[in-house]
Amino acid sequence: MCRSLVIRREPMEENILGLVHQYAASMLEKEKKVSSNRQCDDKEINTAELQKQSRQLTSEKMKLYDDYKDGRIDRDSYKQRAG
Fold first, then answer.
1. Cβ contact 81:63 at 8 Å
2. 77 Cβ contact partners less than 8 Å away, ≥ 6 residues apart
3. Alpha-carbon distance 80 to 54, whole Å?
4. 78 and 64 Cβ atoms separated by less than 8 Å
5. pLDDT in tens, 45-82
6. pTM strictly above 0.85
7. Are 78 and 68 in contact (CB under 8 A)?
8. Nearest by Cα to 65 from 40, 83, 47
9. 20 to 30 Å CA-CA from 15: which of 23, 29, 44, 55?
10. What DSSP string runs through 25-73?
């Protein structure tokens, strides 16, 4: 014998819609975390690059001073290039 099953459509649709909203919200939250991690990685890379450039400029400045001190360039050239 087969019993008929009656399912009310409206509550079922509301439950499914609620689950879809929860899933979408969790995916948006996950995307925010991934995006935030990418930004942190980019900032770390940028910081490392800036530190590298700072070391290079310091090295160039010291070489320039040594050139001035040893008389390889004059005072005006040193001031102009150091600026």
1. no
2. 68
3. 19
4. yes
5. 788 888 889 999 888 888 888 888 888 888 888 888 87
6. no
7. yes
8. 83
9. 29
10. HHHHHHHHHHHHHHHHHHHHHHHHHHHHHHHHHHHHHHHHHHHHHTTSS
Residue 79 CB neighbour total at 10 angstroms: 11
Provide mean pLDDT across the span 20-46.
Answer: 85
Q: Which residues of 41-58 are buried (b: 16+ CB within 10 A; e: fewer)?
A: eeeeeeeeeeeeeeeeee
Dihedral over alpha carbons 42, 44, 46, 48 (to 10 degrees): -150
